[in-house]
Every structure is written in C-alpha cells, then in structure tokens.
Amino acid sequence: MTPVEPGPDPHQLNPDHLPSPFTAAEIRAGCPSGRTLRFRIERAGAEPVIRVSRYVEVDAEGAVQESWPEGLDGKRRSEPERERSTWLELQEHASFPRAITERAEEEEEVSIPAGRFACLRYTRTDPDAVWRFWFARELPGQPVRYEREASGSIVLSAILMENISGQARPRS
Predict the structure, then answer these.
(1) How would you classify the pairing of strands 115-125 and 130-136?
(2) CA 65 to CA 48: how far, in whole Å?
(3) Which residues, in sequence order, are bridge partners of residue 55?
(4) CA 150 to CA 171: how far, in whole Å?
(5) 3-state DSSP: the chain helix, strand, coil percent, rounded to 5?
(6) 63-71: which pairs have CB atoms within 8 A and are 24 or more residues apart?
(7) CB neighbourhood size of 70 (10 A)
(8) Burial class (CB in 10 A: 0-12, 13-18, 19+), 27
(9) pLDDT digits (tens, 9 = 90+) for 128-171
C-alpha cells in the first residue's frame, strides 16, 4: 500500500476511514531508538510465545524495527528480523475502514502486565472474524492489546507485557 499524505486532520488518512489513534508525528515522538515492546501472543491450540519488537536506526522519515520470538522462558527462538517502515506507514496500520469499524465513544481503562492505561478501542468486523484493538493514549504506536474472535471464540490475543522506553530521540 502506498502511503497517503494526511489532509487538514493528520489523524484522517482516508475519508472512508476512521481517524487513527495517533499521527505519524506522535508515533515518531513516542518510538525513539531503543524502545522495546514485549507482547505475549496466544493462538488457539498453540503454546503462548513472547514477541519482542525494538526500534533501531530511527530518523525523521521512519525506523527499522527488529523483532523476534521468545519462549516463555525468555530464550530467543530465532535471530531478529529487520523491517524498515516510515512513520506514515506505521500510522496506516491503525487507519481502519469506517464501513466495518466502530470506535468506542468513551475511553476504556485497561489493566495489563505493562500497566494501567486509558485506551481507545476500535472494533473491526470482517466477514470471518471480529478484531478488537486497544490503543493506549500515552504509548503512541502499536495497540497495547488486540484480539481476534472467530465463531464466538477468541482465536488470537496479544497483550503488552513490557514497554521499555528508548533513550535517543529521532534524528532530524
């Protein structure tokens, strides 16, 4: 998907989509080099894993993220994969089609291992599943919790276990 430049409202990337929870600039400010996120991922019928994602090589346009799986024992299961994204591309991940997505009217308090957060909840209904995403206002970027429901059961869930702030700010 080719990034779309925002119009007058930097949260609104597409007129047919709901406003995204964060702008590209807010994601850039909230994801300095070294920021590391640890998610517990559970899939129906599978052993839970930890997915680690770290921002590296951060600049004004975007960042390289390294990510890798770990077992519940904390041992890395593979070498890090690296992917470069622009800040606008990262914002687009949370730009949901208005026709199939509902944004909760009120913020929800969510208590997870990484802390207690005021969150915006988006619910996207696809033909075969319902996705729910909770974005913490104070942690720009990825949702702190998300889940996929199919046939009335949660078949995938991810919860932020740890958020380690980076030290350096993005380079200009």
Answers:
(1) antiparallel
(2) 22
(3) 65
(4) 42
(5) 10, 45, 45
(6) 63/31, 63/33, 63/87, 63/170, 70/38
(7) 15
(8) buried
(9) 999 999 999 999 999 999 999 999 999 999 999 999 986 543 33
